[in-house]
Amino acid sequence: MRFGPRWVWRNVDLSVGNGEFLVVLGPNGAGKTTLLRILLGLLHLGEGEVEVLGRDPRRGRRLIGYVPQRRSMDRDLNVRARDLVSLGVDGTSWGIALPTRARRVRRELVDEALDAVGARAYADRPVGLLSGGEQQRLLLAQALVTRPRILLLDEPLASLDLRSQADISRLVGTIARARGIAVVLVAHDVNPLVSVLDRVAYVASGRMVVGSTEEIITSPTLTELYDYPVEVLRDSRGRIVVVGLEERDAHHD
After folding, report:
1. Separation CA 50–CA 31 (nearest Å)
2. Most Cβ neighbours (<10 Å): which of 71, 100, 107, 169?
3. How many domains in the chain?
């Protein structure tokens, strides 16, 4: 994949199976969000091929649930939680009078999605008054409301506290396995996700390496990927710490 003369990444061979949880890691500008946009059919490969559920990404888009990078919601936002979720059914018809059967089907889908993420208790509250973790559950419910076969999540843990990060990570993992949904989740920090992910795709320096956490997030693998000395450590709580990337970004051309 490239933009003009600049390669984002190349020689990538990646597949994600039903019910598999793949976490995409890498520095800013490495092409993580680009990968999601390609899977959504919003960008096209300069070379090679990509299929989503055996078809062109544009044709498979309706079978994908997508949560974009989260922006803070204004506290004055007076939209009910369930109305936000219902936008995932058909965002173009919100507020339009629907036939009775269509309204019933929509409500059933919304209630199912709210139940799946544990958000029924605040379904009728204004979104702006909910916590960051509660809002993120609603965005996940919005992505699930059409019963997708693939979930694409772009930095869903950003701006959440540690407890909410762990809760959302477990929730996505549980739903994915129960429903056989393939998950591709972009993140900066792998630690909240280690217990639920299946594989890691690490994107850097125009390359992508894919494998288990133990295979990919190691000193030798990241040193080779960045072409710069990188050390992977574990702290007293078992959290993964990568040392050397700040120095690389400051000094490596």
Report:
1. 16
2. 169
3. 1
Angle at 64 between CA 3 and CA 141, to 5 degrees: 120
CATH number of the domain that 159 lies in?
A: 3.40.50.300
Task: Note whether residue 225 is domain-resident.
Answer: no
User: Closest by alpha carbon to 184, among 33, 57, 26?
Assistant: 33
Q: Residue 72: inside a domain, yes or no?
A: yes
Q: Measured between alpha carbons, how far is 125 from 56 in angstroms, rounded to an integer? A: 39
d(Cα 86, Cα 146) in Å, to the nearest integer?
10
pTM of the model: 0.88
Rounded to an integer, what distance in angstroms lies between the CA atom of residue 114 and that of residue 123?
A: 7
Which tens digit of pLDDT belongs to each residue from 75-131? 888 889 999 999 998 764 444 444 556 778 889 999 999 999 999 999 999 999 999
Instruction: Identify which of 145, 143, 144, 181 has the alpha carbon closest to the alpha carbon of residue 16.
Output: 181
Contact between residue 173 and residue 196 where contact means Cβ atoms under 8 Å apart: yes
Domain that holds residue 109: 2-217
- Asked if residues 63 and 147 have their Cβ atoms less than 8 Å apart, the reply is no
Buried b / exposed e over 77-104, threshold 16 CB at 10 Å, is eeeebbbbbbebbeeeeeeeeeeeeeee
- 8 Å CB contact between 201 and 38: no
141 φ/ψ sector (left φ>0, alpha ψ -120 to 50, else beta) = alpha
| Euclidean distance between CA atoms 216 and 95, whole angstroms | 47
Query: Contact at 8 Å (CB) between 202 and 208?
Result: yes
